[in-house]
Each structure stands twice: as C-alpha cells, then as structure tokens.
Amino acid sequence: MSVAPLDLPPGGRRSFHGKSWQQFALAGQPVTTVELASDGAIYAYVPGRGLLRATEAAPDFKAVGEGPDPAGYILHLALDAQAPNRMVAVTGTSAIVVSSDAGATWSVLGAK
How far apart are CA 100 and CA 107, in angstroms? Predict the structure, then answer.
C-alpha cells in the first residue's frame, strides 16, 4: 500500500474554496487514517509510530499506542461519540478491532 505524505506550501497553509488548511507536525510521514473526536482530539495512525493524538490547540502528536495490527497499519478508525475512549478500527489484515481505553490496547471484535 502506498500512502502519499501531506505536502503543504511553505508556511503550512493551503486555501481551498475559501477554506484554510493548517499543516500539523506529521509533514512528510505517511498517515493511513485520521479521525476527529467529539472532544476535539485528532487521532492519526502513522506506520512505524502507531496511533497518535493531538489537538488543534496543541498540534504536537503524541503516541497513544503501537496499534492493533502486526501488518503495521490501521485502514479505518471510528470513534464512539457517546463513549470517547471507545474506538473501532479495521486493520491491514482486515481484522475489526475494538479499544475501550482510547487506543492504548486493542482486542479483536467478538474475541473472548
């Protein structure tokens, strides 16, 4: 799988139809998925670095966990708006995994 790095012009902003985009600290690193939580947290998965968390006010991404998949990446991530620490992800090996601690640990959906 090939993922293109985020590339913004000098100054880190790009405008699109009057909307402004700001580059975060992940420039040049491939990101397989990104999700915005109801509390404003931004989660991004970077192969080799794991699941990362930041906010717009503090855009320095910090590691949450290594990630759930030995294949090395999360393809899709969904956050539960009613339970902020609950996440569901689809991994590079097509496993559906669940976390109840904001991505620190994962279990395969339906596993006991």
Answer: 9
Q: pLDDT tens, 20-57?
A: 655 556 667 788 888 988 888 989 888 888 899 998 78
Do 74 and 32 contact (CB within 8 A), yes or no?
A: yes
Instruction: Evaluate whether 74 touches 68 at the Cβ level (below 8 Å).
Output: yes
How much is the pTM?
A: 0.72
- What are 10's two structure tokens? 């000098």
Q: Summarize pLDDT for 95-105 with one digit per residue, the tens.
A: 899 999 999 88
Please give the angle made by the CA atoms of 104, 48 and 84, to the nearest 5 degrees: 25
Q: Which helix (H) or strand (E) holds 22?
A: strand 19-22
